[in-house]
Structure formats: C-alpha cells, structure tokens
Amino acid sequence: MPSWLVATLPLLLLGLASGSACSWESPDYSRTPVLFVHGLGQSSVVWRSMIEHLATVYPRDYLYGVDIVPNDMTNARAATSVLAPAADSLLARARAAAQRGGYRGEPPRRLDIVSHSMGAVSSRWYAAKLRPDLVRTWIGLAGANHGTQSLCSWRDEASRELCPPFATNPKTHALQVALNGTDGAWVDETPFGLGPDRPGVPRVSADGTRNILYLTVRVEPDKWIQPERSALLDGAGGVPLSLPAGVPAAETSPGNLLFRARVEHDPLLHHPDLLRLVAALLAVRDGADGRPAGGRAAR
C-alpha cells in the first residue's frame, strides 16, 4: 500500500464515520415549528443567524422567516394578509416533513412566533385577534408593543400607528388602543395568556385550545424603542423560566426579560447569547414541568 494512502486512511475513515453518524441522526419532529416576523423596513434576512442556530436541533422545514412586502405595511393588514397564510403554510410544510421523516407522534398543530421591533405588533395582532388557537409561545424581541417615539418623524402609515407611544385616542390610534387599552379602559394585553394580569384588567383566560405563553426581551438603551418600557407586556409569563448559564439576562417581571449585553436594536438578533436565550425560551413548554433541560432559574 502506498505510504501516502497509509497516512491518509485514518483521516478518510474518520470522515466517513463522522458523515455516517450525521446521516444516522434523525431530525426532531416533535419540536414546534417557528415563524419569524421582522420589523419595519427589514426582511427575513435579519433572522439568518437565528435560523442557522436553531437548525442544529430543529428540522429545517420547521423554521420560516416571513417577508412582509411592502415592509412598511400596517400591522393588522400584515397580520391578516401575510402572517396568517404564512403560518398556515409553515404548519402544512412541517406536517409534510414529519410524515416524510416517518414521525409517528402527533403532527404539528401549533406554532411558536419570534418577532422583532414592529414585527411584535403585527404578530401579536395575529396571535391575539386572529388565531390564538394556533400559537403556543409568542416572543417579542425589542418589540414596539406600546408604540415608540422614535417613529414620530416617519411618514408611512405603519409608523403613524405607533406614534406617540401609549396612545389613548381610539379614533386616531385604533390599533394601539385595541391591543393595549387605556388607563380609563384597560384591556387584556395578553389574551389567552398564561401569566397573571394586573388587578382590574378584564382577563381573557386561557382554555384548552387557546393558551399562549407571552415573553418579551428588551435592551436598554434602545434608540428605536422609546421609551424602552414599551416592550413590556402585562400578563406575560406564567411558567417558570430557566436561562442558559452565562446568558446576561434577567426576568424583571413575569415573562419580561432584560438582555443586559451592550448591544443595539438590530444587532441584537445576531448576538450569540441572544440566540441561546431564544432557543431556551422556545423550549420552555416542551418539558412536562415547563422547564428546559439544564440552565438556571431566572431572576
């Protein structure tokens, strides 16, 4: 046998063994499919890092970043005309993938949503107003849940929906008032949610077919979400959270987390610790006791 072949044979065998091991691993079709919703002026490209990270444990057909076109579409319209069909398509694709893969468990019937910036508003409209029966976990990353002062100089209709933040006029800011209510007329910000609402809120309770874990993650300072407290939701949480060791985040109120790394609004989506955090939050409802394997309790 030639000397060069003797020298390289162990490496060839190792490569074949590694490739064979990868081919033997079966995708985890028991996972819940995830729909990713971008914010104003963005596209699905912003989710590339997160999808690549999650694809190590999810089947590829279970992960889909939607494109809202035009990307300044108003929120309720985006929810109805873009997110609703995208969610149906994702579930159909995931079910087909599970069937092709020989999965014998329950096919996917619900999905999780991960949203960013204004995408939190359109996706929360979808979850709260359109198809609460299809949403298991909703995560808003630096979300403009109560609007933002930063968009007040923008001219598009979607930006006007969110300016000023915490709007109270149902005629000029119907979307904000419908989702968040006002001091004089509170509404449940997290309908069908698992978390505790503040006293006096007319609660829309979870039931056997509609039960959503709402979670928010914010950064401070955030030049695009002003004030930063706009990202928080009353009634979020409701299950114990466990965060990966070393991730700089804390649960400051039920279901509302502060990401403490020094990172700006858009680069947040590519931060390695944020990717680990989102993966852990998506896994919260997978376990029988509501906790992902490992990690530490959130504080």
Describe the structure.
It contains seven helices and eleven strands. With 299 residues, it is α/β, with parallel strands linked by helices. α4 links the parallel β3 and β4. The radius of gyration is 21 Å and the shape is globular. 41% of the residues are buried.
Task: Describe this protein with a few key phrases.
299 residues, Rossmann fold, alpha/beta, two-stranded antiparallel ribbon, 11 strands, disordered N terminus, 30% helix, globular, disordered C terminus
What order do the helices and strands come in, and which of them pair?
Blueprint: H1 3-24, E1 34-37, H2 48-54, E2 63-65, H3 75-100, E3 111-116, H4 119-130, E4 135-141, H5 157-161, H6 174-180, E5 181-182, E6 185-186, E7 213-218, E8 242-243, E9 249-253, E10 256-259, H7 272-282, E11 296-297
Parallel strand pairs: 1-2, 1-3, 3-4, 4-7, 7-10
Antiparallel strand pairs: 5-6, 8-11, 9-10
Helix pairs in contact: 3-4
Number of helices: 7
Named at the architecture level, the CATH assignment is 3-Layer(aba) Sandwich
Shape: globular
Major sheet: arrangement of strands: 2-1-3-4-7-10-9
CATH class value: Alpha Beta
Query: Terminal Cα separation, in Å?
Result: 63 Å
Q: State the total count of DSSP E strands.
A: 11
CATH topology: Rossmann fold
Mean pLDDT: 90
Could you state the order of secondary-structure elements as H and E?
HEHEHEHEHHEEEEEEHE
Unreliable residue runs: 1-24, 288-299
Q: What fraction of the residues are assigned to beta strands by DSSP?
A: 5-15%
